[in-house]
Amino acid sequence: MDLLVVEALAKRFTIHALAREVVAFDAVSFTLRAGQLLLVRGPNGVGKSSLLRCLYRTYLPDAGRALYASTRGPIDLVRAADPDIALLRREEIGHVTQFLRPRPRVSALDLVAEPLIVAGVAPAEARRVAGERLDELGVKRAIWSAFPTTFSGGEQQKVNLARALIAPRRLVLLDEPTAALDPRARDALRERVAALKAEGVALIGVFHHVEDIAGLVDDEIVLQTPT
Amino acid sequence: MTDQPPAARPLDPPRLVTGGPLLRASGLRKCYGSIVAVAAVDLEIYPGETVGIVGESGSGKSTVLRLLNLEEPADAGDYRLAVPEGAGGNLFTLDRYHRRMLRVQRIGIVYQQPHLGLRMNATSGGNVAERLIMAGERRFAALRAAARGSLAVSEFPAERVDDPPAQLSGGMQQRVQLAKAIALRPALLLLDEPTTGLDVSIQALVLDTLLRLRREQPIATLIVSHDLGVIRTLADRVLVMRAGRVVEHGLTDQVLEDPQHPYTQQLVHARL
After folding, report:
1. Interface check B19 vs A, CB under 8 A
2. H or E segment to which residue B37 belongs
3. Contact A82 B251 (CB under 8 A)
4. Taking Cα atoms as reference points, which of B195, B235, B231, B219 lies closest to residue B108?
5. Are residue A151 and residue A58 in the same domain, yes or no?
6. Cα A212 from Cα B51, distance rounded (Å)
7. Which structural domain range is residue A138 located in?
8. How far apart are CA B94 and CA B99, in angstroms?
9. Number of domains in chain A
10. A188 is a domain residue
11. Sign (positive/negative) of CA torsion A111, A115, A118, A120?
């Protein structure tokens, strides 16, 4: 089953103060099925992250369609109402970025467990699973109850990843998730991606080190420098 | 710089969310003499959603909040809440009695200035219990238990229940206001700059309490703040107001990361 059909998607930014338009990407088309990983490639500044942000609607796409087969019926992510997008973000679509903004005063374990609790899992069980995920990524048990605001960049990134990948999702957008990770955490992420695919989760990823997901990629698109 | 959006966003009406909005307001207008505070504001909030309003001082954002709290009459507009007391009609047309009952039963509010929401020399527990008394509860034990429960939910220390707000810190006063606001499990929670003027660590405490509360109860929340960090932390969607009008609205991260309107671009990029 096609989970996502993207046709001629385009994004440009209008910067009013400079009276300028900047093209992020243009005419992107692809099809993604459940359980597939699509790799987005291309040089820096070609709009790879912008493409993911448009599908998550952090950016407003300008043209094209992105037909997503939600459990509640088909919907075009380009035109969907904001409350519908908010609902999909709560229930179906995840976005993993390299930029973590940990909330102050919340422990690593609670931050990771929170999406599961929101999804209806009992808090004790959510914390147990959260601990497993932190352990997989090599976050030492001694700092689970500490606040990630005090962690190093790499450890913050692990908490971010664990949190982003813990809730059940049907479509996951990965924006350079391995950028600041050590080898053990990269291996753990690879295994997590393999497990998600086996569960039927579809993924779209931008990876700086493509070897991190070698053997898991089903398809790829290459973005060209916009003209 | 124009206040007209550069291009109408051609978005479809909601079709995945089930049930209608809890709050639906359209054409809100309020003038003070010749000053137009709110010109024509439309707003919808779905159950469980938090919507933010940002804008400079004088943009009309707090006036919108007061109108929705039925504190003062609107000059024009239609305002509906999907609760039994609303009876499906425009709440601006309710008589005084029904307006008061609706406010007590269904709307909670936290003001920036605690003295607007609290009796500063009554006990903190008494302030919260007052809400319950207004709703008809008369049994002392039930009042005390409910007040303590509500204060505990907003992380107010039990040993200070008998202290009046006048003797509390700013952060603690906001907790009492919050406890009072949520005592009757309102359908709508209104927050007017709830963390402005508090230390950063206390802000985090209040924000965290609000987030936890929202996880536990499907309250529709409207938060007015000029602090984009607060809005980013709490709000699912945001409206940007300028000179009494909404110049832009959207998902919070979208408005902050990809603002469409010239004014919003200026506001977002002015952030420290």
Report:
1. no
2. strand B35-45
3. yes
4. B219
5. no
6. 39
7. 100-168
8. 6
9. 2
10. no
11. negative
- Quick check: is A12 in a domain? yes
Which run of H or E residues covers position A109?
helix A108-118
Q: Is A51 contained in some domain?
A: yes
Measured in degrees and rounded to the nearest 5, phi and psi for residue A122 equal -60, 140
A48 plus A130 within the same structural domain: no
Task: Read off the amino acid at residue B165.
Answer: P
A42 and A82, same domain (yes or no): yes
What ipTM was estimated for this complex? Answer: 0.89
If asked whether residues A126 and A72 sit together in one domain, one would say: no
Computed over its alpha carbons, how large is the radius of gyration of chain B?
A: 19
CA distances from B206 to A155, B125, B233, B259 (A): 26, 19, 12, 28
Same domain, A23 and A56: yes
Angle at B265 between CA B263 and CA B266, to 5 degrees: 65
- How high is the pLDDT of residue B9? 60
Q: Is residue A195 included in any domain, yes or no?
A: no
Tokens for A151, please give them: 């962690």
Other beta carbons within 10 Å of B215 = 12
Between residues 43 and 62 of chain B, which touch chain A (CB distance below 8 Å)?
44, 46, 49
The CATH number of the domain where A216 resides is what?
3.40.50.300
* Whether residues A72 and A111 fall in one domain: no
DSSP strand pairing (A202-206 vs A171-175): parallel
Structure confidence by residue, pLDDT tens digits, B172-228: 898 899 899 988 888 999 999 888 777 666 777 777 777 777 777 778 999 998 888
Q: Record the tokens describing residue A32, joined without a space.
A: 């993604």
Q: Give percent of chain A above pLDDT 90.
A: 69
Q: What angle do CA A121, A124, A126 make, to 5 degrees?
A: 45
List the one residue out of B50, B86, B109, B61 whose CA is nearest residue B224: B61
Q: Tokens for B49?
A: 């959603």
* A66 and A177 inside one domain: yes
Domain identity same for A113 and A216:
no
Tokens of A201: 């989760």
A178-217 residues touching B, CB cutoff 8 A: none
Sign of CA dihedral A199, A200, A201, A206: positive
For chain B positions 72-101, those within 8 Å of chain A (CB to CB) are none
* Nearest alpha-carbon partner for A53 in A98, A19, A91: A98
Of A15, A60, A70, the CB nearest to B16: A70
